[in-house]
Design brief:
Length: 339
């Protein structure tokens, strides 16, 4: 056989392995609502999260622009809650590039350890609001400028949403045979919701798009009223915005029909339920998404199909979500098997 031939069904490294994740029927959520509630298993991407897609879309765009060349020295800098940084670091490793990842020091220990493990140049900063120049996004931009490196800029770089428009959205449409009534997920950069919304609405304008929002975020208020008003706080990481709509999300506002709020307790209930009753181990943002999908399904009524995103795996949050002391300190439910 020709050693240079690519076998069908074989992915070409990390870059070829991202995407085409399965759509999983969530049995208990479906039974509780009389709807088909389906989760896109993005934790099955090679870097372990939905953010592999954003990382790849941004890096492919940088290559197309001539900012990075495969096999030649290059540096990519990004500010992230962790998962985009992991995707960027792994995708950069595959091309021989260096990655510099700026992360708030409050993010889960597991994600920080993973970034160090895969060779990212990790820069930890104190958590600051976006209005502060010490915010991790602004720090990453300054670093990129100082180093003459590529700044990924996942929040406002529209290549983020574009990759979901080109891949995730069409995959969902094909996997449901076009029989989808609603889609919901939370937003950090907004790229996932924005890109999937465009893809689905272009195929059927009646598909209902609902933004899911944790406590402490103002995006639900922005969708409903056009103003930013945040109340409470959340232990979820990488989702929600207190005072702005990132460029990826703002550009897709016309495609968003509604928003729902989900508390930490509601999100954790779904995290623990999925793990112990369906063998699906996911993080807090995925739990929030499933809780939002249940709310959307109940609003629509029985007989509808609702899709959401299972963003990443629970192992990245073991020290928080599965730490009884951490949960009790915040008045959150502790699963019986950890008591």
């Amino acid at each position: 056989m020709d050693g240079g031939a690519q076998l069908s069904g074989v992915a070409d490294g990390f870059w070829g392995a991202v995407g085409n994740t399965p759509l999983i029927r969530l049995r208990r959520a479906s039974a509780a609502t009389g709807c088909e509630i389906l989760g896109k298993a993005e934790f099955m991407n090679p870097g372990g999260s939905v953010k592999d897609r954003a990382a790849l879309g941004i890096l492919k765009d940088a290559v197309a622009r001539g900012q990075l060349v495969p096999g030649q020295p290059g540096t990519i800098v990004e500010g992230t809650a962790g998962n985009t940084g992991i995707g960027i670091a792994l995708a950069a490793n595959a091309m021989g590039w260096r990655s510099v990842i700026v992360v708030p020091e409050t993010q889960s220990r597991e994600k920080l350890d993973y970034l160090r493990m895969i060779g990212a140049d990790l820069r930890l900063v104190a958590p600051k609001p976006f209005s502060d120049p010490g915010n991790y996004v602004h720090v990453s931009k300054r670093l990129a400028e100082e180093m003459g490196a590529v700044w990924a800029n996942q929040f406002d770089n529209l290549a983020n949403a574009a990759v979901h428009d080109a891949t995730t959205g069409p995959e969902i449409w094909d996997q449901t045979d076009g029989r989808i009534d609603a889609f919901t997920c939370a937003c950090g950069t907004g790229g996932t919701l924005a890109g999937i919304a465009r893809a689905l609405k272009s195929r059927d304008p009646k598909v209902r798009i609902t933004l899911a929002d944790p406590d402490g975020s103002a995006l639900a208020s922005w969708v409903r009223t056009g103003t930013f008003k945040a109340e409470g706080n959340s232990i979820t990481e990488g989702i929600g915005q207190a005072a702005r709509a990132p460029g990826n999300l703002a550009a897709a506002r016309a495609f968003i029909d509604d928003a729902v709020n989900v508390s930490d307790a509601e999100a954790l209930t779904e995290v623990f339920d999925l793990q112990m009753h369906e063998g699906i181990s996911v993080g807090g943002s995925a739990g929030l998404n499933v809780a939002a999908a249940i709310k959307v399904a109940r609003d629509l009524g029985p007989g509808h199909t609702v899709v959401t995103i299972l963003c990443d795996g629970a192992a990245r949050y073991q020290s928080k979500l599965f730490n009884p002391e951490f949960l009790r300190e915040r008045g959150l439910p502790v699963p019986s098997w950890l008591e």
